[in-house]
Inverse folding.
């Protein structure tokens, strides 16, 4: 995924921070620029948020599309424009903060961050976002120093996360090819129980090798990737076609309701029943 490299010179202020809920969310987002506060720096808005309910699809001006799933972090740097819509019909919910920052583009320094559009689920970043939004919604008015501290902590976690991810980006082309083949095989066989050994055998590599390269390439174990894919498909069947959890689980090769409940709570932080109640 394309990244934007910016060197953040200073935090100006948080423009707003809130939790947003909408039905069939569709929006054209364009982050603003501001008149420079200092001659040598740009001044603009950067938005950072996390999806709580119903994944959203970002369509860039070049036509490329990227999906932020529930729990993912999305980052919209200054001077960016995207068409945004929900992946599924119905209610969408996210929390977000927009901050005005001073920055320069493309420089390498200790304060430079290579910002991706989407970071897979990261609880540390999500917790800081919730904290900023909670303070904004309360009667307590944060001081400038509190806002600055919270936002710098947020950026610090993002920088740490992206640097770790970038360490694994210089992988051979074969890694991407094998992982893409593994993803396709998992999707093609979503209706049945599949083992990692089976996928590795299909693409002609060892189980240990596949497990190792997939974790580095996707940022999560292959078993977790498959489980998330199946759970997302289950949710779509339950929302759109009224399937019960048992029937939807059987459709994607998960026929143990207790196992479904356990991994759902692990990945989403709530039970499947609680999650579906929120979506009514």
């Amino acid at each position: 995924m394309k990244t934007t490299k910016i060197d953040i010179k200073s935090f100006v202020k948080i423009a707003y921070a809130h939790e947003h809920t909408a039905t069939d969310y569709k929006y054209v987002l364009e982050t603003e620029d501001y008149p420079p506060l200092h001659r040598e720096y740009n001044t603009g808005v950067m938005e950072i948020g996390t999806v709580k309910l119903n994944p959203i699809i970002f369509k860039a001006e070049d036509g490329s599309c990227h999906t932020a799933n529930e729990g993912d972090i999305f980052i919209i740097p200054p001077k960016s424009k995207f068409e945004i819509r929900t992946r599924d019909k119905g209610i969408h919910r996210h929390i977000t903060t927009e901050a005005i920052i001073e920055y320069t583009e493309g420089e390498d320094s200790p304060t430079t961050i290579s910002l991706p559009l989407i970071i897979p689920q990261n609880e540390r970043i999500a917790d800081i976002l919730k904290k900023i939004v909670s303070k904004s919604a309360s009667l307590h008015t944060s001081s400038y120093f509190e806002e600055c501290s919270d936002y710098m902590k947020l950026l610090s976690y993002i920088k740490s996360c992206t640097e770790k991810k970038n360490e694994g980006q210089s992988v051979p082309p074969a890694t991407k090819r094998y992982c893409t083949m593994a993803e396709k095989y998992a999707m093609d066989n979503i209706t049945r129980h599949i083992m990692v050994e089976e996928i590795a055998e299909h693409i002609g590599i060892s189980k240990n090798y596949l497990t190792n390269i997939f974790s580095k390439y996707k940022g999560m174990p292959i078993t977790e990737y498959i489980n998330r894919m199946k759970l997302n498909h289950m949710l779509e069947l339950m929302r759109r076609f009224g399937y019960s959890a048992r029937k939807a689980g059987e459709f994607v090769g998960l026929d143990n309701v207790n196992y479904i409940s356990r991994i759902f709570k692990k990945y989403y932080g709530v039970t499947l029943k609680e999650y579906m109640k929120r979506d009514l």
